[in-house]
Structures are given as structure tokens and as C-alpha cells.
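Re: your question from the hallway

Yes, I did run it. Sequences:
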Amino acid sequence: MLEQLEGSQAIARTVAACRPEVISAYPISPQTHIVEALSDLVRTGELAPCEYLMVESEFAAMSACIGASAAGARAYTATASQGLLYMAEALYNASGLGLPIVMTLANRAIGAPINIWNDHSDAMSQRDSGWIQLYAETNQEAADLHVQAFRLAEQLSLPVMVCMDGFILTHAFERVDLPEQEAVDAFLPAFEPRQVLDPAEPVTIGAMVGPEAFTEVRYLMHAKQLQALDAIPPIASGFEAEFGRASGGLVREYRLEDAETVVVALGSVLGTIEDVVDGLRDEGVKIGVLGIKCFRPWPLEEVRTALGSARRVVVIEKAFAVGAGGIVGQNVRLALDGLGVRVDDVVAGLGGRPITKRSLRRLFGDVLEDRLEPGALHFLDLDKGVVERELERMRTHARPGPHAENIVRELGIVAARPH
Amino acid sequence: MAEQRIKGYQTGTYVVGNRLLDPEERSVQARMDRSNTLTSGHRACRGCGEALGARYALDAAMRATGGRLIAANATGCLEVFSTPFPESSWQLPWIHSLFGNAPAVASGMAAAMKVKGRDDVRVIGQAGDGGTVDIGFACLSGMFERNDDVLFVCYDNQGYMNTGVQRSGATPPAARTANTKPVGSEPGNVFGQGKNVPLIAMAHGIPYVATATVAEPRDLEAKVERAMGMRGARYIHAFVPCPLGWGSASEDTIRLARLAKETGLFPVFEAEHGEITEVSRIRRRRPVTEYLELQKRFAHLFSPTENRPVLDRIQADADRNIARFGLLGGAGEE
Amino acid sequence: MEKPFAITLDVGSSLANKTGTWRTDRAVYVDRLPPCNHACPAGEAVQAWLYEAEEGGEGYERAWRRIVADNPFPAIMGRVCYHPCETACNRGQLDEAVGINSVERFLGDLAIERGWRLPEPGSDTGKRVLVVGAGPSGLAAAYFLRLLGHGVTIREAEPAAGGMMRWGIPRYRLPRDVLDAEVNRIIDLGVELETGVGVTDAEAALEDGFDAAFLAVGAQIGKRAYIPAGTAARMLDAVTMLHGVEAGERPLLGRRVAVYGGGDTAMDAARTAKRLGASDAVVVYRRTREQMPAHEVELEEASEEGVRMRWLSTIKRADEGRLTLERMELDETGFPQPTGELEELDADAVVLALGQECDLSLVEGVPGIDVEDGVVDVGSELMTGRPGIFAGGDMVPAERSVTVAVGHGHRAAGAIDAWLRGEEPTEVAEPELASFETLNTWYYADADRMHRPRLDAVRRQDNFDEVVAGHDDETALFEARRCMSCGNCFSCDNCFGVCPDNAVIKLGRPGERYEIDLDFCKGCGICVAECPSGAIQMVPEQI
Ligand SMILES: Cc1cc2nc3c(=O)[nH]c(=O)nc-3n(C[C@H](O)[C@H](O)[C@H](O)COP(=O)(O)OP(=O)(O)OC[C@H]3O[C@@H](n4cnc5c(N)ncnc54)[C@H](O)[C@@H]3O)c2cc1C
Ligand SMILES: Cc1ncc(C[n+]2csc(CCOP(=O)(O)OP(=O)(O)O)c2C)c(N)n1
Ligand code: SF4
Ligand code: SF4
Ligand SMILES: [Mg+2]
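Structure:
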């Protein structure tokens, strides 16, 4: 059913169609509209049977999902940013226990400085938590990915995080073809837990494991997550067959045919990049795009195949490993190991800074003209003046204090009000 | 008194069983068919009060629910000694998630049972004092405030035992722990304001709050049974001596629990909806020194010289409890 | 269910982990000797029979049978025994001793009422044993000898059996129907009782076709003291007086009677005098109340009945209707010394209750038998210096009581049996005493002792009705259940309950106890500390 609606509403309605039995969440922008809408659906009885737990923290939200899932209920939560970090310990626990919880992550920056706007620092900080991470490009895809996420999670008995850009998607009004209830029911079988707390068949879940078996347990976890690479494509094609549109998958190739230069990115920025790439193509530049739909597990083979014949790759990412460099870029380099493809990492869109076509065009121009310093971490639209002044000041004053705060003060910018 | 009082039967209510009683009148622990929910082969220290308390509580809960019971357990000794791979000592469906989230995990389990129409299956959450009064406290309070259908049991051994006996919010004043050594001007743990979680639980107005000790299994069982007869958030705070952390003889575990109650240091009571309904009165009042002397964690109060001011302060704490909870009078059989 | 490797485990799988290997000490069940048993002169297994009685109902008969295995007179004991068991009873250190004696009486009376029979005699050994004297010692010996299958003949000088139980102890303390019932039950086991037959020569009697003899002639002669007396002063001794009363005589005592002495016999004499119509009965004793050998209750009951006491007084002289007393004073050693102060006391008669002596003429000249201090010398097995002749009760050196006499009878029967079979009597090692310190008395219910009701003093004045009433079922049961079962498991399930390792196995069938599961016992010792009755012990492992 096609509807013009806010992304958050689309997610809430789609999640409801997936018939979660326990929802446990704690509000944080920009996730709030999703969980508010779900709360309404539970209160009105449109989503039933379902227990909505208004917990006191994200830690409790994830913990309640752990309990619910272990007790055999389909469990769902949503969060963002600080909230994700607040549940970090429980994230590892959910994946370690192999509980098929589905979570929406309305991607948002992590403070300090506190910032409510979009980037991928939150998701990337938990990339090794053992959760499957899927990234939505549009609200349509975000909605569709939730249906697929439940199926994937329960098939593998692993938790899945659906990442969608905060505000950019969650608060955007777009036309979304909402998955119909019957179609969802047909696509998503009832939850058959792999292990469950059941008095009829008691088990002990969550043993303490020492050095004698811990490596094996972690190895198996890795192997199990890699199974998602085999499971996702058929689920995506199955979804396409059922719903008549392509959504999800591991990667999405755009104009890669003869591309010498490939831009790699995830999430909503892909649309903007594709527009810019279209323009460059019109100009005869052999450039294409590889969208990463599934970042965890890392689709190494698919990325290698897609990028293997390119000359250079530029990775645009909304997070980075402070003190090290690009995160997605590192993974791409790993996939291209030995192929001699140059990979540049460009950090863009941090804390909600818009990624404009103009900036991208300039960036791609620099790439094509070979103006990027090799091996360095690049920042799109960085105000060089500010950082240089600050660095200079640090050199002379060596005054302690958060760098970012100093930058802001010097620029005379009033910090965005924390939400 | 929570438990049924048995008069004139040689031992009355005090022992576990008593052959003279009708089997139905005996404690759960007296039954050959008790579920031994925490069974043999666990790795708790010799004489561990927590192992004992957990079996008392869970066997009673199993009986009260006809075995339809599932449990969430926080990290801590109880979890570690019961479930080192490849062996589990549990005989009920049980999950360990984290140190600080057992109440929330339990809430999730209860929600699952409700949504599945299986509210015949009851949920118990359990943790040590650290997992309850400190790191798990927010989750616990949330569970209380929402009145989730969970019985939460705290096994209070007054410290972080699993990590090598550090202080917790439930460690008593003057006690020596690994991080409150008797050095400096205030030997042992500080005299703070205390963190009385049973009273805090009551402040949530939840249906049921009780304290109990391993010295009186019938009382503990009766409280678990009563709790299981109710819906909503319920809390039992069980006092469980730890020979390792307290430096006490392994055979003194129950004696210490008894003394904790009989000195007034650990008031045993029940409350419903925020109001105290029953107080278990002191039967043979003892001075606190009798309790403290048995524990190396208080040894610095007795040697090289007796620290009278601190001992007096501890006695004053006990006396305050006695006055506050009305612990004296009419203790024997009614 | 698919269980993920290592994360999810099978329930109860820790049973494979035998934590018993941690142990350095192990818990072991023991049976310690309860102080009551230890103190009972008749060797009754008090704790064991109370254990049965605690069950009530069917348990009563089992309890009674447990008593008569050591003592055939529960109903008599429950009235006249001085119950040293209660003096020793550990419960005395907690609140008040268990009323063992009262429960015993309840059981004894119940047995008479229900007609419970003593065990059948053993199969005939062909041996014949002569018992001289049908007092408690002789009767007990006869009973146990019959149980062992020996033929028994009792020769008794008096016209009826019972000894001092009949001729000494007044009826208001021991009704004769009770006495007769318990005595006849023994005779009914096939004992040949010849009454009115005084034995004058033990040696000769033995040769009358007997293989062994047990002498239990008691101490029948009232001791005399020299008191200067006027010709008209009336003086007699207590045993003669009591014997006379029992024989249906009415001794000439007058209205004011003085009894001289401080023992139980003095009390019996004074109380009997009261019942015979004396308006005034005064006990004159040269020491203090505290030093008086009479039992506290005897004194109490006597006082209730109006018997007066004159402490620290000796009789200097007796004249018609009047006695001259001298006041005494205790010296530093607690010994009474005359003060020279004289007083007068109106009295029509003086009854001397200064103890009894034995008439040992029947052993005079028997080779090997020695008499010292008026009693017959015996070895530990109660055999005299004449092989085959044994002696017990009041006539041998020991405390003089019915219970001691019964104990002797029991012990002698065993010794005679062994001697007849040419064997050494078997010595049983005595187990460790269950001292108060071995108990954990926390566990016993607070239960104040139930005392037996006594007849109103006014209703005792002119009759010999029994003064002390028995317990009813409820009070007897309550009293039995006050027993702490010192040193012996009483199936309270505490050990089963308190083991943090479930290492105590409850065997479960009635009467069966518990076993330590050494696979899992870590040796913490909680069961030992928390066993109420001290029936478990820690012993070091042999490493
Ligand atoms: C007044 C009084 C009250 C007492 N009250 C108590 C009491 O309350 N509780 C208690 O425990 N003890 C009491 N005693 C003591 C107790 O009665 C004796 O210790 C006990 O009876 C001794 O038992 P026995 O069998 O050795 O001798 P006895 O009971 O004296 O029996 C000896 C028997 O042998 C017979 N006899 C004696 N010589 C011969 C012979 N040559 N041939 C044949 N038969 C002979 C006697 O006639 C008598 O029947 C009391 C004693 C007295 C005198
Ligand atoms: C988040 C977190 N912090 C700290 C720990 C380390 N830790 C594990 S158990 C424990 C103490 C447990 O104390 P308590 O809850 O009282 O249980 P006990 O072991 O005393 O029975 C601690 C500090 C942990 N596992 N997780
Ligand atoms: S440290 Fe204390 S709580 Fe932990 S197992 Fe040992 S005795 Fe039990
Ligand atoms: S309490 Fe019972 S076993 Fe112990 S001494 Fe008294 S009667 Fe004997
Ligand atoms: Mg603790």
C-alpha cells in the first residue's frame, strides 16, 4: 500500500506487520517517533498480542529483549547513538547467546560533544558486537529490511540491526509502499526459537566458558555470522518475489560496468552520490558506485568481485576510527588485498553536516585528478582554517580540554541544543 | 511470622522437617522429592550460604509453581559456581545474561510469558547484593516501578565475592574487604548512610517485599510461597553468609545468619504495598560482638586492642533496628 | 532443542563433578550416650523410649516395650523413682528437665489399662536359679532370668511379694493395684514364688537343686539411736511402723508425733502419721533443710499436708508426752555442732527414721562371702565370694533405691546367665556422652514443662489415696516431645536441609535416618553445627 508518510511511521507500521511479541525501548532522538508510533499501535490493539515495556534505559531495553527472546518471544527494540552505547554490554550478550532480536538503529553521532544529528559513529562503534548490520538507503528499503531482518535473525538465530540515517530518513516524508500484512505473514514464518526457556525442557543458557572452549565458541560465532552472507541473497530475492521490489542484499552495484573509479558508501548518502555519478558519467567519466547493504558480516567476496577491476576506490563514510582512519575503507582494502587497487577514505557528514552534491563533485574531481594525498584520511568540507588555528594554539598553549569545544568557541557557533 | 507456627512438636517450626509432622506440614527442604533446583556438583565454597539460600528459595518457588518456573541470574558467585562449562547445576530453565541486568531480563521473560498466554509459567530473577543493590539497581527499580510480574531474590552476602571480596553498597560498616582494608583512620568499610534495598523496594509500593535468612528455611520458603501467590513485582532479600568473604568457619554459615537476626543487625520482616505487615521477632537477643567475633572481616575490631567506639556504634545500629522495626517481644511460640 | 555449543548446557550436568574430593573432614553420624540413659540406675534407654512415645498412638506401646527391655516396672518407676535421669537431663540447662518420670508413669499405667504383656520367656535352658527376696531387685532378676530361659524360684519371707515397695513405700505414693499388676505380670512369666519362706542359709538353699542363687533380702531393720527415755516414752522405728500399717495394724502413736531423721522414710512416716490421725507431725532433723537427704518434692508434699519441720535439732531426751531438743549450729565445715540450748517439744511418740540395716544371717558362715559395713561384698558382676551366689539391691554397697535394685537385678541376671554358660560377661564399651555442648538447642521449641497435678492437701488428710495424678494423653505427649533426643538422630531433617551441596541423603523409610553422600560432601560441617541433637561428628579424612 503506497503511502506518503514519515520514515519513522513507515518503520513502526512495518515492524508491527512483523508481529513482534515484546517491544522494549527507551526514547532517544531520532528514534523517538518509531517507538512512540509502536506504543500507539500496542495501546490501540492494532498490534496484538504484544507487550510494550517502557523501561528505564537502553541497557534495560536490550536486556528485556534478551529475556523475551530467550523465553521464545519475537523481540524488537530501537535506539540511536548514546542509547546504543548504553546497551553495548547487552548487545554483545544478545549476539553471544544467539538471540534473534531485531533492532532499528536511527543512526546518530556520539558525543561529546553531544550532537543529535546523523552519522554512523554509533553503528560503527558496535560493528564487532556480533550483530548483523544492514544499512538502508531509503525509507522504502528501511521498511523492507525490517521484514527481511526478522526472517534472517530467526533463520540464523542471530540479532540483526537495521541502520537507517537519523532525521535524513527517520524524519523524512516520502512515499513508501508499506508491506501488506498478508504478504509479511507469508514471508515471515512464526518464530521457532532455536533454544528457549521452557519448563517442559529445561536448559541452562549462558554458561561460563573458560580458555578451554572460549576460542571455539567465538570461532563458531564468526562462522555463524558468515552464514548470513549465504542467507541474505536468497532472502532478498525471496522478498523481491513476494513484494515485487528489490531491497536489501549484500551490496548494490551502480554503473560499475567499466568503472575505473568506484565510490563506496552506505546508507542514504548513496542516492546523492548516484546523482553526482550520473552527472560524471554524462561527462564520460568511467565512474560507478558500490552500495554496502550489509556491513556485518562483511561481504568480502562480493566487494572484491565488484571492485576488482576498478583502478581506484573512494570510500565515503560517516564515521571513522579515531587515531586510525576509515573503518569501511579498511574493510574494503582487506577485500582488495593484492589487487593493487588504490583506496582512499573520505570522512563525510559527521554530526549531521550535509553532504552536498557540490562537495561530492569537488571531491570526485580531486580523486580523478589525483589530488588526494595517498594514505591520508580525508575529511569532506573540513574547515581547515579553524582546525589549523586550534592546532597552532595547542602547540603554543598546550591547554587541556576537548578540542572540539575549542573549535566551536573560536568559531562563535552556538552548540546545537542537546535533545 | 510468615511461616505456619507449629507448637510443642519438640522443635516447633525451627528445624527443617520433624518426623512427627504430617508430611504436608514439613518444609520443602524436608521433602525427598524437593527439586534440588541447584543440585550437587556446584563449585561454591565449602559452606556457602548463597548456594544454600538459592536452593531454599528456588525449591520453594518450584513447589509453589508446580515446576513452572524460569529464572534469570546475574553474574556473581551464584552464576559462576553453578554453570562453568560443561556442567550446570541448575535443574530449571535458567539464563545468565549480565551482571547488572537480571531484573530487566526477567521483565522481558515475564512479558514473553504474558504475551504467549503462558502466565502459569512464573519468572524469578536473582542476583547477589552487588547485582541487586548496586549495578542492577536501576533495572530493579524499573522492574518494580512497572510492577512487572517478577519475583526478584537478592542473595546478600554483603560484598562482591566473585571478584575477590570487594565492598558493595550492602557491605556493613567497619567490615574489611579487599578494598576497605583496616588501614588509615577509619578501619574497614565506612559508616555511610547504608543502602537498604528492602525499604527502597517498599517505597515503590510493590505488592510484596520480604527479608529472610538462611537460618530459617521455613520462613524463607513461606515468603517465597506467599510471593508466588501474588502477581506483580515482588522482592525477597535473603541474608546469606559467605565463609570466604567473611573469614568465617564454614560450619558457622547458619549460625551467623541466625546471629544477624538475633542481634538485630538484619531485621526480618514482610511488607505489602509499602506497609510492613509482619516482623519476625528476636527470640534470644544477642550482643553484636557475638556475631562479629566469628568473622575475620571484623577481627581488627578485637585485636590488637578492642575498638570499643566502633563496636558501640555497630551495637547502636542494631539497637536502632530493634526499635525501628519493633524486633523485641513475643518471640517464642505464640 | 538445539543447544549452542558451550553456551547452553544440559540441566543437572554438574552431578558429574564429584566435589567430595575437596574434603579434608567428613561428617559421620554417631549415637552419643544421652545423659538420662547414662544416669538411669536401671539402664533404661530413656531417649530411645521417649523417641517412640513422642509419636503418640502406636508409639506408646513401642515406648513401653523399650522400657521393659530394661525395667519391668514402668508404672512403679513413674511413681517412686527418684529420677536421676531428670537431674542429668540436658534440658535442665535450657529451661527445665524433661518430665521423664511422668511419661514413664503414663506409659506404665497405659500398659496396665490396656493389658500389654511382657515379652515371652526364652526357651528353657534347663537351669534353675534361686532368688531370695521378692523385692524389686529379686523380682527384676527373676524377670530377666525368665527372659533368658532359666527356671526361677523366689523365696520370700513375707506373705506377699514387693519388698519395700509394699512394706515401706506408703500407698498414697504407690497404690497397691499398680504394684500388684506389675509384680503379677512377672510372676505370670512362670516364676515360682514361695511366700512366707524365709531363707536362713543361702548355701543350703542353693543345694536345694539350684544352679545359682541371687540374694536380694534388702535392708529390713530400722536403725536405732540411743535416746535417754523415760519409761512411758513411746518409741518405734519407721520401717516397723510402715510395715505395720501395710499389714493392717494401727500403731499407737497418739495425737502428736515426732519423727526423727531427715530422709524420705522420715517423710513417709510423718505423712502416714498424719493420715492415721495425728494432729501434729514434726520432723526433727539435726541439720538444715539444704542438707536434708529427703527429696525436695517429698518435703514439699509433706509440708502441704501440715507436717512441720524442726531443723538443726537433736532429741536429747524423750519423756511421756514431751521431748527435749537441743539446738544445733553448723560449723565452718557444715557439720552440726551442739549449742547446749535446749527446747521442749510436745510429742506422744517418737518414730525413728534413721536408716535401715540388713539382716545378713543367711550368709553367715557361707564360705567366701564377706560382709563389710553391714553389707555383702560383691564384684562388678554382683557375684559374691562364693561362686554361683550373687547379691544385689539394698544388701550390697550401693545407693538404696528401687531403681538401683532393679538395675542390680538386671545386671545380675546377665551375669548369672553368663556364669551358667561358663562365659565371661560381655563388656559393652560406653559411647561418648552427649553433653549439653554437643547440642544446638536453638532448634527446640520453647516449651515449659508440664507438671503432674497433685491432690488437694485437704483431700489427703485421712486417706491413703494417691497424691500425684498422672498425665493425660495430651500432657504426656507434650512432655515426651520436650526431649531433645540428646546425641541421637530424631529425624528432624535438619542435616538434609542445611547441606549447601545436597550431600545428605534422606533414606526416607520410617525410622531410617540419613547418609552422607561422600561423592559431594565438601566437609563444610554445617550439618554437624546445625544438628540439634549432636548426632553428627566431623572426623578428619585419612589423606
Ligand atoms: C519407707 C521407705 C520408702 C522408700 N521410698 C523409696 C522411693 O520412693 N523410691 C525408691 O527408689 N526407693 C525407696 N525406698 C528404698 C527402696 O524401697 C529399697 O532400696 C528397695 O526396695 C530395695 O530393694 P531390694 O529388693 O534390695 O530389697 P527389699 O525391697 O527390701 O526387698 C527385700 C525382700 O526380701 C525379703 N527377705 C528379706 N530377708 C529374707 C530372707 N531371709 N528370706 C526370704 N526373703 C527375705 C523381704 O521380705 C523383702 O520382701 C524406700 C525405702 C523405704 C524404707
Ligand atoms: C559490568 C560488570 N562489571 C563488573 C563485573 C565484575 N563482577 C562480576 S561478579 C561481580 C561481583 C558480584 O557481586 P554480587 O552481585 O554481590 O554477587 P556475589 O558474587 O557476591 O554472590 C563483579 C564486580 C562484571 N561481570 N560486569
Ligand atoms: S565466595 Fe562466598 S558466595 Fe562465593 S561461592 Fe564462596 S562462599 Fe559462596
Ligand atoms: S533431653 Fe531427652 S535425651 Fe536429653 S537428657 Fe533429657 S530426656 Fe534425655
Ligand atoms: Mg555479594
